[in-house]
């Protein structure tokens, strides 16, 4: 049987229904776009804005002093000599490795209180090869390398050893430290020496393999009762004297570097 043809009135009604449906769908699409845009905008605002509670005062960044500016990026490597299976020298149950670490920790604490960054080759009773000690300093790009030790033998007092071909900054560092310690009180200032006790252009490993100005600081003789008493009684004062000398040297040579007059490094 042949299908009945739609009348003109029916065709007009179908067309009107289709147009209405398209209009409704378009409205839903537009509403959806607006809702999505608002959601995205809200997320972006939440990610990029910090909401501050009302009546909450803003914290101001403290002003940086000239001294603190000069110390920005200032790093000191403190090396407590010996450690672990290596006792160093000893006397009547007293071990060099322990004295070295005790002073190293006191020096670390003081320097950090002065806003100086410190790296330690060891902060406990552990053993490190000399090459590992220098690597700690060099990897940290330390500005100075301070190796703490003690003497033993016929003698008394404090001395320091620097690289045989040390630059002006290394020399000043050693001399300033010796002067500072002498001000606190030591049994004898044995001075600043170059190379090693063997002479002939030889150098101690840490002085010749450190990239930074360095020194070995011999904090008295372990078999000297006077040196031992001074170290025990003046530990904090010694740490402060060494720390202040380090900072003084750094500030002086940083100023020279800024004006292009430094003969160091």
UniProtKB/TrEMBL annotation:
Keyword Hydrolase listed: yes
Entry-linked SUPFAM superfamilies: Zn-dependent exopeptidases (SSF53187)
Highest taxon in the source lineage: Bacteria
Keyword terms of this UniProt record: Hydrolase, Membrane, Transmembrane, Transmembrane helix
Protein name: N-acetylmuramoyl-L-alanine amidase
Species of origin: Roseburia porci
Database matches in InterPro entries: MurNAc-LAA_cat, N-acetylmuramoyl_amidase_3
GO biological process entries: peptidoglycan catabolic process
GO molecular function list: N-acetylmuramoyl-L-alanine amidase activity
Lineage: Bacteria, Bacillati, Bacillota, Clostridia, Lachnospirales
Membrane-spanning segments: 20-40
Listed Pfam families: Amidase_3
One GO CC term, this protein: outer membrane-bounded periplasmic space
Limits of the MurNAc-LAA domain: 134-247
């Amino acid at each position: 049987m042949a299908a009945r043809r739609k009348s003109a009135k029916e065709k007009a009604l179908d067309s009107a229904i289709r147009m209405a449906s398209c209009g409704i769908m378009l409205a839903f699409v537009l509403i959806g776009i607006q809702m999505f845009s608002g959601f995205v905008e809200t997320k972006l605002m939440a990610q990029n804005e910090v909401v501050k509670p009302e009546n909450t005062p803003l914290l101001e960044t403290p002003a940086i002093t000239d001294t603190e500016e000069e110390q920005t990026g200032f790093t000191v490597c403190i090396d407590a000599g010996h450690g672990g299976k290596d006792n160093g020298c000893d006397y009547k149950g007293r071990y060099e490795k322990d004295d070295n670490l005790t002073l190293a920790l006191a020096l670390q604490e003081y320097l950090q209180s002065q806003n100086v960054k410190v790296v330690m080759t060891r902060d406990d009773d552990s053993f490190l090869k000399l090459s590992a000690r220098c690597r700690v300093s060099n990897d940290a790009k330390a500005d100075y390398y301070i190796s703490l030790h003690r003497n033993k033998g016929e003698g008394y007092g404090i001395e320091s050893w620097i690289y045989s071909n040390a630059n002006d900054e290394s020399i000043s560092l050693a001399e300033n430290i010796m002067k500072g310690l002498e001000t606190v009180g030591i049994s004898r200032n044995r001075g600043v020496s170059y190379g090693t006790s063997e002479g002939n252009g030889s150098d101690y490993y840490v002085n010749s393999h450190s990239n930074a100005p360095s020194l070995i600081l011999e904090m008295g003789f372990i078999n000297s009762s006077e040196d031992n008493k001074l170290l025990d009684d003046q530990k904090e004062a010694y740490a402060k004297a060494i720390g202040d000398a380090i900072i003084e040297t750094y500030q002086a040579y940083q100023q020279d570097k800024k004006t292009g007059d430094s003969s160091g490094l």
